[in-house]
Amino acid sequence: MTLSSSQFMSMPLKGNLEEYFNIFIFMAVAFGISLFLVLLSFWRGPKRPDAEKLSAYECGFEAFSDARLKFDVRFYLVAILFIIFDLEIAFLFPWAVSLKSIGLFGFFSMLLFLGTLGIGFVYEWRKGALEWE
Amino acid sequence: METLAVLVVFLPLLGAILSSVLDHRSSQAVTCGLMALAAIFASILFVKVGLQEKTLLIPLFTWIHVEFFEVSWGLQVDSLSLVMMAVLTLISFLVHVYSVGYMKGDRSIPRFMAYLSLFTFFMLTLVTAPNFLQMFFGWEGVGLCSYLLIGYWYDRESANAAAMKAFLVNRVGDIGFVLGVLTIFVLFGTVDFLSVFELVEDYKDETFTFFGGHYHALTLATLFFFVGAMGKSAQIGLHTWLPDAMEAPTPVSALIHAATMVTAGVFLVVRISPLLEYAPLAREFITLIGAVTALMAATIACVQNDIKRIIAYSTCSQLGYMFMAAGLSGYSASMLHLTTHAFFKALLFLSAGSVIHAMSDEYNIQKMGGIWKYVPLTYVLMWIGSLALAGIPFFSGFYSKDMILEVDWVSNLPVGKVAFVFGISAAVLTAFYAWRLLLLTFQGAPRADEAVMSHIHESPLIMLIPLMVLGAGSLFSGYVLYDLFVGESTSFWGTALFVLPENEVIGAAHHVETWVKWSPILATLVGIGLAYYLYVFAKSWPERLSIAFSTVYTFLLRKWCFDEIYDWIFVRPSLKLAKVLWKEGDQKMIDGLGPNGVAALSVAGGRLLCRFQTGYVYHYAFAMIIGLVLMIGCYFWL
Amino acid sequence: MGGAYLPDLTLVLPEGILVVTAFLILMTGVFRKSTNPQVQQRFGHVALSGLIVALGALIFYHHPAERWISFEGQLLQDDFVYLGKILILSGSAAVVGISLASMLKEHLLSFEYCALILLATVGMLLMVGANDFLSLFMGLEIQSLSLYVLVALKRDQTIASEAALKYFVLGALATCFYLYGASLMYGFSGSTNFEAIATIIRMESAGNFPLSLFMSLIFIMASFSFKISAVPFHMWTPDVYQGSPTPITAFIAATPKIAAMLVFLRLMLEPFMTLYDEWQSLVAFLSLFSMVLGAFAALRQTDLKRLLAYSAIGQMGYMLLGVVAGTDEGIQAVLIYLTLYLVMIIGTFACLLCLRGKGSYGVQNIEDLAGISTLHPKVSFALAIFMFSLAGIPPLGGFFAKLYIFKAALSAGFFGLAIAGALASVVAAYYYLKIVKVMYFDDAPKVPSASYGQIVVLPLKMALILNACALVTLLFFVFPNPILEIVQRAAFTFSG
After folding, report:
1. What ranges do the domains of chain A cover?
2. What ipTM, to 2 d.p.?
């Protein structure tokens, strides 16, 4: 099927996508309002910068250097490991709620999933990924 | 008998194949043995079939079959092909044996023997062919072998050049042959000899019309064939390759460039006698060419110094004689001369080879002399050969040459008398150069240096025995075959030759005036006397003559300037044209735009494409997204 | 969804075997903590036997000419999938077979490598066996993530980690394309199941397809074009091929391409078959660009692996030509091409792994091959065979592969594409033949260094695989039937 550009522009959104129109409006309004607020404060807000204000915020004490600096890859590692197990929990909640209806197969599926994650956990443990030093 | 005929043709092929896988000793033994068998079988065939005046037609298998057009492989064994087969196998056998001695110490003897045997095979298919197409197969095959053998010593530049020259000049003739076959096919719808010859009387007045002219079909066809014959048999115009072909080893010169292959043209003309009989114009042309060639080659032979070239020009000249006779319907006389010539010319060449062998590869007769004491047997055999060549009574050449000259005299074609005069003049010159060769080579004071003279020795027995057999042939073949071939009451040829009653010359040739009978002998004696006078009694004369008539001398020494003229007319312009086509046409236009241009473009394209491969991951991602957008766009707007 | 529901687990038996083997290797390896090469090699052999056992299980439990569905329509196995799984399992096994020795020499062989190869293979098996956009995504990700790690195996080397990073970032982008396309498809059809989607699309009237359907089609096509490295989604290929250690390159070049191509074929021919008129011109362009770029961009490469990357792009273009045809003949041609391509590429890499260049891993530059024919006549002869075959010179296998493709394209009426393909293959022949020329006609360097040009090892496994590949390539034209039969049955899945 081929369409000219004018046809494309005038074509109504069709099919099941129509049902998403509300969400689209919601997103557009949300985006519009937040944009408006940011711009408003940028435009109307008082601006009196000094060195202290322009330096990076660092938990209350003096900034050592620029904020955009390299940091230890170990933070990254911990973050990634955290995410994995965080997501695991995210799976566990719906599973626990619907355990009655998914039966034994559902139960063992989750056990398999947990087992697999466990193997990964054992691997990273033995590899020393959890050691800070 | 059929089996025998097949064996005669295919034994040499077997020899060639075997020889190409054997070492040099066994290849010599195998090829010689098989050739001996073939020679014996051919003689049996000659006696059992030829002398009984029978004809064998042996179909082998179908080659081409297109609706009504059929060409088969086969053997046509009649008296004409039998004469050729017998002579060919015998001389080929002798040359094989001679080569064992002559080629001793060469690096690639099996190759040489294989070529020789292969040549014999092709020549046999040529002479036994039952149709024009198979004949052409043999014709090209012998050309190929000739090329291979001329260029046998491929590390010599001159040999390669000579081989190429022979091949190229023969192509000109071959085109004539092909056109002839095509004309025959167009005219008759078949290329079988028997069918064509049966139909020929019905078609004798056919004409072809093109470019507004009417041409007598048979004259056209036979002239085409004769162009082919001129190439193969080195007649004037297409003869330039033959002297150069002497670069080949001497046994090859004897077998191919004297006794057999070069006579294929004569054989062809004789074979198509039924066509020629209805084409008087073509016959006159053939006679004229033959006569001119005979005289021209003889004049050149008188001043040459290379022993093999002298004999080569002599071959050219003798072939001219054969065409003279064939053109005047004296086919059997032509065949007789072909046979005797095969013997004495092979003898001359092989003897010359023996001399060259003795003189440590010296070819120049001016540097020989006085060696007859050291090589007595070769000397005697050379004498026999020269006597036969000159046509001294009771030697073989006498019978055939006399017959030809008598045919010239009695023919009712106007060119007959011209041919006679040319023939007599050539006979004088023939005797002169033959004796000049003898005297300069063997007699007088030695002109070679000490080292060479101390090495002179008679050739080994394995070379001398073939020489003696050929010597016997040169002595007796004329006498033995005279009555059989051209006797007044012979019926040997049967249907193989065809002569219209009004063209009959052989019978009449036996009854010519006495002075005509004696004039060839007289001419010969004059020639011999002249040679003796100039080279024994007045030794300073040849040089003085050459200075006095320096123009004529140079003209002859340069072989009538054929090579120079051809070089000027054909070779240089075509080289120049080729250079233009090569540099401008091929290199600049075709290569430049074609292969090289496209290749350069491809490389440039490759370079361009590689430039996109920047190595930056965001460029890659960008390319992907652009690709996606393009796909979407492509989808909507295409 | 009753509690008694239990899917037919024999369908995933090969995958199960591989997963268990991988976990076993992982656990044993991590607890033994040994760097002893002997031990590492044992892991390699375990992985190899796991692959072979899985192959056995696959063949043993296969139901010929049947559409075998399990996991509520998530996975299926028919003759087409069966062929794909056989190719993947045997291809992976062969790659492991040719890699172990040189991995060991390069101190790259670790139990992680073995486990990751197995897991990547599991991912590929799931991909080709998927009957649903969700299970397909799962397979795709298992495979991709394993590959990203494999590429980075030599992580202390800049070029390798750069390659891995590029592969990862761009792969993630491709995954996004896929997810976006798949969710649009779900939005359109309300289902992720291939059959259901096919039915729903079929019910739409032609010429009135909604926009979301096209978007979904294009995004999914784009993501798989990335996987099979079709132009313009090919940019990662040369960098990743070059950056990875040669054994890993061999793996990436061989099986994942096969899996992605099979999935591409399945998607186009099953859920999207109704849209043939819509996608054929797009695939035609992908094919054309791939063939041309594969031919031209490789002309000036000096790095062997980069050259092979462009070669792969070109070869994928030819396969896409068969997809464009869309006919039964075309599918067969693609499958034959895939099979022979797998054989040729594994053979090529086996040769490269046998020979050793100046660099640290394998032969790196084309010049390293100079005059190698005198040192290793057999290996160079084999490599020459593969190069001739890739160039499409009769009577080798590669020629017939191209022949079938062109035949299919011609009989489907794509004359222009077929001609362009033939021309591109002429250009491409240059660089394949150049390798042969360098091997046979260039002089070896004057002073070969101690390690230069030496065979690392030619153990039994290597020799066996190399000979098998060479024989298949050489003798395909004599005994094409075993391959042709299985391919015909596989193609019958769609037409039947």
Report:
1. 70-133
2. 0.87
